[in-house]
Write a structure and sequence with these properties.
With 271 residues, the chain is mostly helical. It has one domain (19-192, 204-269). Helices cover 77% and strands 0% of the residues. Helix 2 runs antiparallel to helix 6, helix 4 packs antiparallel against helix 6 (149-190) and helix 7 (205-217) packs antiparallel against helix 8 (220-254). The chain crosses the membrane at residues 44-61, 67-86, 121-142, 148-168, 227-253. Keywords: Membrane, Transmembrane, Transmembrane helix.
């Protein structure tokens, strides 16, 4: 008898409709979802175009076969990270491409997936730090005993740290973070969760150029804006570090604490 009552209650619960999201709220969430999808597509194509850079600096001509083998393992491990990350990336993209989010459950599921994906995204780029450490060691053939090799190792590793810091601090926010915040805020409001006042941020140069390009070229303008900023920031970081290094070397030579000939010899050993 109790089993029959349980079945009746189960059927009754299953027949109940899930609470629906109003059309107004669905339209409100459509905009950040559209931008998330567009930015994900942009990043995917950027990844494909920059993938050959994995082989830049690969020691094809190294005399030590151990260096070549270790470098091969690093490249393979990097590819494994990329494949895993973009498989999760694709899963989230498919969720965003669903035709409609009609119930509160759909919205809550979307919020969960976005927050999980955000942490995976950050972890993905952090995972490049130990790989960069190893690549920097490969760059100097694991020889700290040669003069200035420690400095070369440090500079090489520093470039990667700066790129990772930039991606987590700025790229993550402007590409995904601000849109994820909008979705999470909306879900919390619909579920009666108390939310604080929305932070008012001044328009950054990225956002200003984004609005300009979208106004001129539509949604494709966002892709153009993202690519331009990606390339510009990369060039800026390399140029900035190059200028700093040149100034440091010039000052060091003038003050006689850097031997230019020994430094040149150390750099030649990298080739």
């Amino acid at each position: 008898m109790e089993l029959e009552n349980f079945k009746e209650l189960w059927d009754k619960d299953n027949r109940q409709d899930l609470p629906e999201i109003s059309l107004e709220k669905q339209r409100e969430i459509h905009s950040p979802m559209q931008m998330l999808k567009l930015n994900m597509e942009t990043e995917f194509w950027l990844m494909l175009f920059t993938l050959p850079m994995l082989l830049i600096g690969f020691p094809f001509a190294a005399r030590d076969t151990n260096i070549i083998i270790i470098s091969g393992f690093v490249v393979a491990l990097t590819l494994a990270f990329i494949i895993y990350f973009y498989s999760r990336f694709l899963k989230l993209y498919k969720i965003l491409c669903k035709s409609g989010i009609n119930t509160n459950y759909d919205l809550f599921n979307l919020k969960t997936q976005l927050l999980i994906s955000k942490e995976i995204y950050i972890s993905y780029y952090i995972s490049y730090i130990p790989l960069a450490f190893l690549l920097s060691l490969i760059q100097i053939n694991f020889h700290f005993d040669i003069k200035y090799n420690l400095s070369i190792f440090g500079v090489s590793f520093l470039i990667t740290l700066m790129l990772v810091w930039f991606i987590i601090k700025y790229w993550m926010y402007y590409m995904y973070g601000r849109y994820i915040e909008d979705v999470v805020r909306l879900v919390d409001e619909l579920n009666g969760v108390e939310v604080g006042p929305k932070k008012v941020r001044g328009n950054s140069w990225f956002e200003r150029s984004q609005k300009f390009f979208i106004k001129k070229f539509g949604l494709k303008g966002n892709i153009l804006n993202t690519v331009l900023w990606f390339v510009s920031v990369y060039i800026f970081i390399i140029a900035f570090l190059t200028i700093v290094l040149v100034l440091f070397i010039v000052i060091g030579v003038k003050l006689h604490f850097i031997d230019i000939y020994s430094l040149q010899k150390a750099l030649n050993n990298l080739n």
